[in-house]
Design a protein that fits this description.
CATH topology: Jelly Rolls
Helix content: under 10%
CATH superfamily: Exo-inulinase, domain 1
Distance between the termini: 45 Å
Largest sheet: 7 strands, antiparallel
Strand order of the largest sheet: 1-4-13-6-7-8-9
Length: 197
């Protein structure tokens, strides 16, 4: 019985184990295989080129009240088709079957998306929607955008380059704050910070 319990624990924990991650970071791929997630310190930030869509997070970025998160993404080249990158909040059970979080993604064609993750389901809050707040990718596929979650007021505001693109009611903001990058991207991440209020 004990052997079966330990096997179950290992199977649940395995999606978040990835060798070579920067100190303090954990990763989880959507399909459970993080071996293709390449995430490394580079210059004043990090560089990621995930083989599968993945979230990346640090235990130090857990919040229990108001917070402000900010990060600057530079898409360095065009993916085969538009893919999103962004931030999440209210993360819980990220290593388990009951993982939950809310996230905003942007992509190089000037679109953004808001979704919730609840276990294996990801219902849309906002489907892919165009906004002029996003710096679109140039002919080489490069674009730089600052993404923020401002959870200092009664609503949680998702901002791109200083402009609010969407606000969501969130009675419970507590949980982990982190990054989400979809597959097929090559992205540099700079200035990621979570300011707890």
């Amino acid at each position: 019985m004990l052997g079966r319990s330990l096997t179950g624990l290992l199977l649940v924990a395995s999606p978040v184990f990835a060798q070579g991650l920067p100190a303090g970071w954990s990763a989880r791929a959507d399909r459970g295989d993080v071996s293709a997630v390449k995430f490394a310190a580079m210059g004043p930030g990090f560089h990621i080129s995930p083989g599968d869509a993945a979230i990346l997070y640090r235990d130090a970025d857990k919040v229990d009240g108001k917070f402000h998160a900010v990060v600057t993404f530079t898409q360095t080249k065009a993916p085969q088709h538009p893919e999103g990158y962004g931030v999440f909040f209210a993360g819980s059970d990220l290593a388990g079957a009951g993982q939950k979080y809310t996230y905003v993604l942007i992509r190089g064609d000037g679109m953004y998306l808001v979704k919730k993750r609840d276990g294996t389901t990801t219902p849309s809050v906002v489907a892919w929607t165009a906004t002029d707040a996003i710096q679109k990718a140039d002919s080489a596929g490069k674009a730089t955008n600052k993404v923020e979650i401002d959870a200092t007021g009664p609503k949680v505001a998702f901002k791109v380059n200083g402009k609010t693109v969407y606000e969501v009611d969130a009675a419970d903001k507590a949980g982990l704050v982190g990054l989400r990058v979809n597959h097929g991207l090559d992205v540099h991440i700079a200035g990621f910070a979570v300011h707890k209020m």
